[in-house]
## 1
Amino acid sequence: MMQISLLAFPISAQQSNGSRVVPAEGYCSMYGICAQRSDGKVLNCANATKAVKPDTLFSSRIQSLCPTITGNVCCTADQFDTLHQQVQQAVPFLVGCPACLRNFLNLFCEMSCSPNQSLFINVTSVKQINSTMTVDGIDYYVTTNYGEELYNSCKDVKFGTLNTRAMDFLGGGAKTYKEWLAFIGRQANPNEPGSPYLITFRSDFSDSSGVKPLNSTIYSCGDPSLGCSCGDCPSSSVCTGSLLPQLNTDTSCSVKMGSLKAKCLDFSLVVIYLALLCAFLLWGLLHRARGRTASSLQTKPLKNSDDKSDSNQNGKSPHNSVQVSEAASSTVKPSYPSIVQTYMSIFFRKHGIFVARHPLLVLCVSLLIPLLLCIGLLRFKVETQPEKLWVSPGSRAADEKNYFDSHLAPFYRIEQLVLATSASSGSAAPSIVNDNNMKLLFQIQKKVDDLRASYSGSTVALADICLKPLSTDCATQSVLQYFQLDPKKYDDSGIDHAKFCFQHYTSEETCLSTFQSPIDPSTILGGFSGNNFTEASAFVITYPVNNKVETTGQENGKAVAWERAFINLVKEEILPMVLAQNLTLSFSSESSIQDELNRESTADAITIVISYIVMFAYISFTLGDRPSRWLSLFVSSKVLLGLSGVVLVMLSVLGSMGFFSAIGVKSTLIIMEVIPFLVLAVGVDNMCILVHAVKRQPDQSNLEERISEALVEVGPSITLASFAEVLAFAVSAINPMPATRVFSMFAALAVFMDFLLQVTAFVALIVFDFRRAQDGRIDCVPCARIASSPAAGDGGDGQRLHLLARYMRDIHGPILSYRAVKFVVITVFVGLAFSSIALSTRLQPGLEQQIVLPRNSYLQDYFDDLAKYMKVGPPLYFVVKDFNYSSASVHTNQICSINQCNSNSLLNEIARQSLSPETSYIAKPAASWLDDFLIWMSPEAFGCCRKFVNGSYCPPDDQPPCCQLDQDSGTCSASRTCSNCTTCFLHSDLDNGRPSTTQFKDKLPWFLDALPSSDCSKGGKGAYSTSLDLNGYESGIIQASAFRTYHTPLNKQTDYVNSMRAARDFSSKMSKDLQMEIFPYSVFYIFFEQYLGVWKTAIMNICVCLGTIFVVCFLVTSSLWASAIILIVLAMIVLDLMGVMAILGIQLNAISVVNLVMSIGIAVEFCVHITHAFMIGTGDRETRARQALSTMGASVFSGITLTKLVGVIVLRFAKSEVFVVYYFQMYLALVLIGFLHGLIFLPVVLSLCGPPPKSVKPVEQNQPPSASTERT
């Protein structure tokens, strides 16, 4: 992609005063060529002569280029040849819009050959060269209307190759006609493009001067006879509105109340909440009035219950609940348990007896399965490739990426450095564009160029792997490209040349890069506003590296080896250099994320170990007894039992990992760090509940009875909670994201195995431990025993309640029984649920890249700097499948955006969308190989598609062999080799300006091999080498072709999501309208596709999980009533958790969706044990609610809440932010919310509208033998 030189018209190079020529019709101000400048530009003669009549041949030649010039002329054949040669550089830029091209050519035709030249051109400066007076400066008079209409006809014309306006090349980015004409008329320095003399365009003149400013016909770009495309002329009347409806930036419904404005949803929730609150208050008042008419026995059951409970405490009666509720029991008719409950009771009773009789057998058999599964760990592997972690293999984005990579080419790998100045307090960061920093960049560039990496016994340099558009030089994006990466050129021109190039990068050949492409300063600078590039506070250096499709994992081995050496170089050598200059440096390579994920996989191993140690210490403390004598502590402690329980959890985790490793499923970072903690927290809960249940059994019963009765008491609720958790993970396994799906699979199996080990191996361990305690043996040293065993005196806690249990019975329960407290609890918790609904709508989809990386990763600063400094967005490709280029097809006109293309063509619509970047997220019109190919073939672009006499391809005149290349200077001098070359086609050869199928097929390879240059900027080599798939194109079908544009700068996760949604909506609309398959592609789409439907996924998974748990609860409890209450409480917990996420700024993504679904399963533990205890209790609702809190409240608090809290707090110190945000914060919120709902809200609800009790049928069985009959 070479920069064109500006029009160099025949004129002079130094100024001297010239005489005023009297304007007159038929007279010239300049005529003939008198000399040449030192750079070869020809100079006109300052010759006020009468216009000359040309011969017929010359006249026809002039007419072919300048149809408005008739009769006499003010130019010679040599002058006309020079004009023809110079305007051909501008033709490729403008030929797509015939009206603009015609107006542009007329401007210079009139200046060079008009017979009335003296009327609007005045030679103001001449210079004598070789005794001849040559023109050195002129005034060119045009009317204001002429200048404005000329500019308006060309201002929107695109130069698709670089996704920019042609005005950026031909007018220096002019915004008005005056700026454009001033740019055209400036006098060029030697060897620079431009006019050899100064042209001053003027509109001011006096009537007495005789000047008649040029005011010839200007064709509007919308003129049907010279129609431009809608992309080049959006103001044309034929250009209808966009096919894609513009997105409304504020589509939400709102309600105004005075000066306040609220969303309709928020307002509706407030109204519904107030209505429910009033209804609840009315119900309470009616209930209270009805209660006053009842008997005193019915109105004061709780008080009687309290009194009798207190009086019976010293008697240690295990059945005091029956006594205190005896009066009320006549009004509450218990129902019998379901078949499932009956079966579970029978099963757990028999199972408990069997385990108590054969603990060693049960322990050995139960441990055998996880130990065998651990063998699969021999195939254990960790997946760290981001695409395989966060992208569903069958997703649309993955399929489109595979199609793009296989048919076109993978997007290049990016290695990047960002150098920036630091802002002092209270002031903006200073400019980085100074001499010292430029010299630092040259030192850095030399180190990068000299860097060598080792790969398979060979060395790899940047030049071996870098992207080379023209097969010669690397496409390095750096401010140093304005000096062609040559420090000598910088020494010659200095920093001022860089500042000059910031404004003229498209129009100055001296600003071209080493790979002959203009370097947009917005891609290499950062921290500036508008176009104030000199204020930039950051340099952005990018090294594009060739990428290959991965099949074996070794295709990019050389690139990866160099990238790792590059990162080491930056850390060890470049970073100290930058810091010494008081600058900051952030950096990245294509393989950096994967390498950092690999490093992170072992970064939190200590955190996991600490978590297990803390959990072990806590479980040992909470399972043990607090005896009256300190010596008894050695017997009553449960350290060995706690340690054994932790080992069982580890076995379940390792068994799950072994099973999936054996079947070829790779583990992930999240699995290795979260599941051990998760299963430990869940497992400890059930361990505490089991041990506490055994302790609650009467000491008079033998061990078999205590074990079996404990399992009958808590086995169903443990089963229900465990199955709810397993089902929650199983539901999450349908999530398409591999990382979360695999996590859910591993977790589901681990939790299930942990449950099995708890009701088998751990129960067996309880048997051994209680036997040890009964025998007075010391914990951890069972071979030693204390002479006077405290077991009998201090043994079971069946009749001596712990402090926490007494608190639940004597303080917590009675407080919740007050009507005012109940009203406050219901009001607050329902209000929180409604508030959480409103807050949850504020949840933003996304997953910040920094979160999944270690907090001390060098990429943290890099991503921050990208968001802070980058001024361009990611490339966006619109890919067209099966483009039919045959003459019979309408596809060409449905895609292209030059003249004769459909007004609603794909490229015209893209250009139209770029006019509304705030909603379309499209920054520029698309680069179109099709447009450039059609222009390149056009006879109008006479310097492009040319052929020798023998029919072979003839390059432009400024390329070898048409010119002779000087290897030292790099210049190409004229040659006669291509003097006989002709255009590929005449106008008559084309069908309405379009090539035939054969012409298209034959010349497309020529176009893709054609180098762009000043004489023909439309060559396709480099710019479009990977834009289309030529496999099988001879059939008339191009399987894949891409049209490149750019997204606007995307700084937030919502920007990425919305930009992808907008691009897909647009392409879908275009596909439907044009009956062609079109899809958008950008490198980040595969990672962000999940967020397009994350809300739908979240709601579906949560609803399925809630529904599944409801069914399980009903099967276990046989009570729709109880199941509905559990369902409502679980829904409120999830809603509150989503509200907390919104407050903490936690985004909605696959990880948080899995956590939300998983939270339902974990929240079941806070509800099901209380509800189960409530249902098997006796008495009225108040009494049973108190009983449930007294029996299970302490276990829920100490065995569930505190165990999870202890484990969660450890995650706060994880090095990876993903664990801190998505596991510490979310799990901590879940534990607190679950605790509040389980021990405050749920008991109140049960006391108000709980289900009737379920009596337990007596189970016929033989009297079990004493615990001493068998100890094996």
Note: Confidence is low (pLDDT under 50) at residues 1-19, 295-332, 789-800, 1257-1272.
## 2
Amino acid sequence: MEHKINPVSAPSPSKRAGEGRPSFSIYDASAGSGKTYALVKEYLKIILVAPKNDAYRNILAITFTNKAVHEMKSRIVGSLSEFAKDEPSDKAQDLMKDLLNGKRKENNPEEWSEEPIGLSIIQIKTKSQQIIKHIIHNYAAFDISTIDKFTHKVIRAFAHDLNLPMTFEVTLDTENLLIEAVDAIIAQAGEDETLTKLLIDFTMEKTDDDKSWDISREILETGRLVLNENNRNEITHFQDKSITEFVEIKAKLTQACKDLEKQTIVFAEEALTLIDKNGIDVKSFSRGTFPNHINSIQQGKFNLKNKTFHEFDDVAINKTAKDRVIIENLIPEFLQILTKVYSAFEKINFYKAFLKNITPLSLLNTVSNELAKIQEEQNVLSISEFNAIIHREIQNQPAPFIYERLGERYRHFFIDEFQDTSEMQWQNLIPLIDNALSGQDDFGVKGTLMIVGDPKQSIYRWRGGKAEQFIELSKDQNPFNNPDKRLEHLDKNYRSYSQIIEFNNDFFKLLSNEFEHLDYKDLYENHSHQKTNDKTGGYVNISFIPKVEKTECNSEDSGDEGTIDKTDLYVLATLNTIQKTLKQGFQYKDIVILTRKRSQGIAIANYLTEQGIPLLSSETLMIQNATEVRLIIHLLKYLKNSSDLESKANFLQYLAQNSQDKLLIHDFIAQGMALFQETEFENWLMSFEVSLSFQNIRKKSLYEAVETIIAKFLFPVLSKGKGDLVVNQMDKACFIESNKFGYMTGGNYSHLSIDKAKAMRKEPTHAEKVLWMEFKSKSLEDYKFRQQHLIDDFIVDFVCLSKKLIVEVDDEYHFTEEQIQIDKNRTNTLNILGYKVIRFTNEQVVKSISDVLNKIKEELILQETFLNSSSPVIAPSPSGRVGEGNAYVQYFLDIVLERDIRNQAGISDFLNFWDKNAEKFSIPSPEGTNAVRIMTIHKSKGLEFPVVIFPFAEEDYNRKPKDKLWLNAEEQDFGLPKVLIDNSSAVEGFGEEAVEIYNQKKQEELLDNVNVLYVALTRAEEQLYVISNMNLSSKGEIPKNNMCSFFINYLDNKGEFDEDKLEYEFGNATKLSSAKPHIDTSKTIPLVSEILNPKNIKIAQREALMWGTHQQEAIEYGNVIHEILSFVKTKNDIDLAITKSIENGLITFGQKETVLNTIQEIVNHSELEICFAEGNEVLNEQTIIQKQGKSIKPDRMVLTKNKEVLLLDYKTGTHNVKYQQQLENYQTAIELMGYKVAKKVLIYIGKEIDVVNL
């Protein structure tokens, strides 16, 4: 075929990957500048030119979100796939052209900035085919991951050295761990005397300051210090301090404040004595200012915020004063005294500022220890501890040793979004990278590092990501021994139309004047300008909401400064903007609304929903809002407390709307609410074909209880005419035999089966032990396996839950014909539940572990591919009808399972957890839905949208910062080198060093806020709308430190601003782009109840559905009746027994009437009526151990009050004399126990009931 690509003269193909590249490349990539393209291109260069097809094994690419990982992997694999085709796509051909032709330096065309790869088109095609094939077969080695995943991999490799359990789990839920730790600390009040006194004193301090007595929030903030990387260095100074030591320090500080206050009074009296001693008239001082100042100090009323005296001229003297010369001679002495006074007050204020924080700080160790204890108990490790562990324990290990443990040796590193990399994460990576950059591989290729980032998009300082780190690297800093370093600026914006690019260029260059810090100023003055692309046009709109006039009326109704009215104006302006863009031809899905705060997004979402605007936001996708999830929660609340009428009413409303059509909704709810006895309520529900036992559900584990609710109410397709699905597996004898091997528990996660699983974990076979050690080592670190784990009614050897893969290891027992059939049936059932099962023999595992692991890896990758390609289309579930909300239910089930396994949570514990955390969980946003998106600016990072609307653009930067400040202290004063104080203007009174720290913090906060604004204003492709508020004073002054001033200054600089004009336009408000076709990569999977509702798949203990032949039908029917009768003690138990039988899968709902009639016929039989009467003790299936050690188990024994026994035994099939002999043996055993057998009855159960009295 004929290609469009015309490669220029290129270097020799003998050039290896990395030879033409600098060892250390830094790409400064502004918004929309194609950083992912640059990363992929450099990655492809390495693997295409490398002599081997598995060069990707030696590359580690790191980014920060799973979505970014997916994008990078998809781009690389997609590019290779296109290169391998005869006719690559246009995009692939453009990329191939860049690879073939390279790139010349703009300022020196004779030199390369990017050298060509030196391959022909055919060579690229052939090589791509080979690499793709290799990646498919070794996908786990295709190492592109999040930095947290890589860190986890390192920790897992060193788990033994770190004394971590091999089976530890990673938790992202650090906040809840902290809350548990704080609750545990407060619960210790009354036990530990020192802790109790501290907590009480802290509570009293808060109430004295007119604050809430609840101290948990402050202690929680202390806990966050422990886990926040930004404070790691400082808190090391406190980790060896006990509560007692802190109490002593607090007492010293308090006393020091009192002593200093006394000193100031002494100093003031010294100054007053000088005035009196020298006969100075106080009226000689202008307005008496100076003596009044001294008196205020002497009386303890002085504040540093008042006027102070530092210079000679500060002491004003009346021109007519007769003692002027005397005063002037004493001024130096007065100033010297006051210097000591001011210094003392600075110390007092400094100590008091620390005293405000010392009590929660004194609990630092207590919180840390409690947190460690909880993690150990739950066998979890908080992800926030990863970096610290590596930094403390692993970082200083020799790089070759670390590589050996990892089982990989990386030669090339790619780090995406470097501005978000924390300092500790970077320090942890340096040794590995330095090792690679310092040497060459077997082919003489040097290692490389490519860093891509943008310090202007650094918005995660609160978790350790600092723009300064990138800025320093972009200048002279180089942490590596290899000096070969190059900085590249990606300065062309491929995302936006020209009008938006030009607006941002002008806006942020002007904004650079807000900075005093030279690096920050340079960042926006010289590094924010971007070149335009070939997309000309676009539109920018800056508008201001009308001025809110504060009146007495709206002041009372709306709270602070008319906030509610202002919010109404913002949401109305947002709606008008949406309607304006729709008229231009944009669709809802083209529009995104960005807000700084979540509360602002909620306000907009509520209003737009009322106006009928389709929306997608984290709120609309929260699983707590799904009808199905609300039903489950209401039912769990009812199960916890049957007196919870609100939950009961909500449950009934759901049933009224979805599961019955006999009554009006109101009548149905009213009837159900009138039934207070639970048994009556259950019987009433039965009349609407809703069969359940609340008591039985309460006995289940949390996960089972939720599964039962889902099976009963959310997927009724099984009970609407189809009946329950019953899997015919084995008869009773086979069931009992298989239980020896942990195959079926018969109790669905009962305590018996849990204990059985635990016991089997403690006594693995040799082969199981070998495979388990491989799972826990480096072999399959990307996949988490569980050992001897319960799956429905089975205990499986090993399972990877995330990939639904089960691995069984079989000994010779499994080779018998009978067991082969059992295994086959078991596998079929597990397949129905959605699991893939693979089996190995003991011999295979022990002798060929490598082959076994390779096979498992292949299956895992296949499962991953299958699960990814089978992900269901997710849609909001407003109606609560079957199938529409299954994505919400599945996610909810995942949460329940995690709480059940990790915390052994019951219903009550889970509901407490849910009350605190429900709003955190939402399903992923579906692609292609025609709805307006609402998201915070932070969540929009890395995304782009045709139309961006940015309301509430008036953030006040003067608000009190959340962060506190660490200041240096004189350690000799109280034994601490650092102190923690509130970040406020008071810091400016604590000395020059404190002022410097305070000002640096203010500049950092300004940079972070401007960076957030940069992210917001660079998301737009075609149109950008900013909605702000002028906030002008009554004199028309522009507010300081408010975001709105940035827009006003920009307009003023353009000569456009007029305070009476509310809207400013740049460009033409015309839609220029054509609609992008949405490529739907998801697949809609029809509802498969057998998989989504595994609890509806019951293992038939009697093959009730085998009632086919007349003889077999009678036998099996009899067995089922026999089983149900074991639940019946008196006539009153019949209904409950039937319900239990349906729940256990023994019979289907459709068989209920037939079975009920048979049971009633037996119970009400004239010969048997006395055996089911009330007032007697009944023993069903009671084992009796005889003297000789043999045991018997009569079906039913009725013990009357006069020690007589009525003996019943149920049989199936034809009459047989051996049954009579069996009953006589029972009689002999019972009479040896001192009872008299008054009646012996054989009951033959078949098509008809035959009662035989003996």
Note: The chain has a mean pLDDT of 81.
